[in-house]
Each structure stands twice: as structure tokens, then as C-alpha cells.
Amino acid sequence: MANNNPSPRPMPTVKGIIADLDGVVYRGSEAIEGAVESFEAWHERCIPYCFVTNNSTRTPAEVCDKLHKLGVATVPEHIVTSANGTAALMASRWPSGSRAYVIGSTALADAIQAVGFELCEEQADCVVVGLDPAFDYVKMSKAVRLILGGAVFMGTNPDLLLPSEGGFLPGNGAVLASIAAACRTEPEIIGKPEPFLIERAITALGVPREQTIMIGDQIATDIAAGQRAGVYSVLVQTGVPEEHHSPIKPDLTVSNLADLII
Ligand SMILES: [Mg+2]
């Protein structure tokens, strides 16, 4: 176990675990070494865990299936995605029957419809943008016109790059930036590094935040979101390379989940 924090705070007695998925539990379709065994051990010790992902393209049930196939016990209620987080935030802000123009996956559109929104391409109360491989100039034009007309601009997550087997792909943040440049309006972001998804996970776990840890492989999103939510943060170095110059310091750094002793 290595800790690069010059004045580390002690880890609390852990009553709940929040964990990122990509780069922590799996990489593509492969489980990361040590991850499945760690969650198995925590499950046996009855330490509840909740997964939080900026990926808006899969439903919690789909993520749950993937985790089951890898050997991780969980339930859809313990999977917080930026898609269902966005839908929940919208439902708290607008009355049922409000109108949304949605760019993104079926999972995102379904989550927004499920909380009472009408999907539309004009007279929208808000424009919601999640990762959409079919994003094009026509969709961009609709979003820009609606935002210029007063619709609220929201983004599921700000990730600029996505690692893939063939190299990096542009992430949702890059699409958001193109719309923001045209409108001169910044989107409201729901995913990490904002703390909203972490807050939902704390609620789902039902444990005190002082006794909750956030495990992630990215300082700029996972660790930042954990710290904003006031939970103890653990960086695991099995995902993207560490950002050595970040001003944000995790409470603890481990090379592998098997090294995380709680
Ligand atoms: Mg990750």
C-alpha cells in the first residue's frame, strides 16, 4: 500500500463503499485483477457497496447484468448512472409533463421519459446531452436553437476522452463543448466531478457519509466528486494513468484493489 499524501487523514471505520466501474472493476469486458475478489470479500462481510458511473449509455439493469457475469453480487438499486441521476435531478426541478430535447442513448431517453418528461424537438424546457455516437450537425442545430431560445442546457457527464480498444474516442464533454461554444452558455453537469451522483449513492447505501469511502481511478472526476461530497477518497491505479500534477490529492492511493485493507 502506498500513500502519496503528505498529511494523510486516517481511514474511517468503513460502513459503505462507493466505487467507479471502468478502470476499477473492469476494463472493457474484462475484470480488473483483484477487483472481483475484493467485492466478494466485502459482500461476505456485509459492507454495502454502490457503483457510480458517468457512462449514460447503459441502464442500471444492464450494468447489473455485466457485473453478475463478472462475479460481482449487486442489484440495480445500487448502480447510479449519470443517465438516471440526470433524470432524477430533472424530476426534482420540473413538473411532470415538462418537455425535454434529449441527445444521447436510449437508456438516457427512457430514464427521462420514465420520470414524466415528454421528449420533443421544439418548445423544450431543457436540452439534455449524453454520449451519442450518432451526434451530428442537425442535432447540434436543434440543441443550439433551443438553448438560445431559453431552454436549460444540461450534460450528463463532462468526460472529454473515452479510452477504447482502438485508442481514445471523443467523450460527451467534447460534444457539450461544441454546443456551448455556439450558444456561449455552459451546461449544468450532473456526473462526476459534481457530487450529485455520490450523494445519490450515499442515500442508496443508507450509511453515514463519514464512514463511506469513494474508490476511483481518475483524480479529476472520481476523487474530486468524492471530496466534494465529503467522503474519504481512494485512488486505485488500475485505470487511466495518474495525473501527477493535479492539485487534488486522494486520501489514499493503492496500486490494486487487493491492497485496499478496510
Ligand atoms: Mg474510471
From TrEMBL:
Keywords: Hydrolase
Matches recorded under Gene3D superfamilies: HAD superfamily/HAD-like
Origin superkingdom: Bacteria
GO molecular function: hydrolase activity
Family: Belongs to the HAD-like hydrolase superfamily.
Protein name (Swiss-Prot/TrEMBL): HAD-IIA family hydrolase
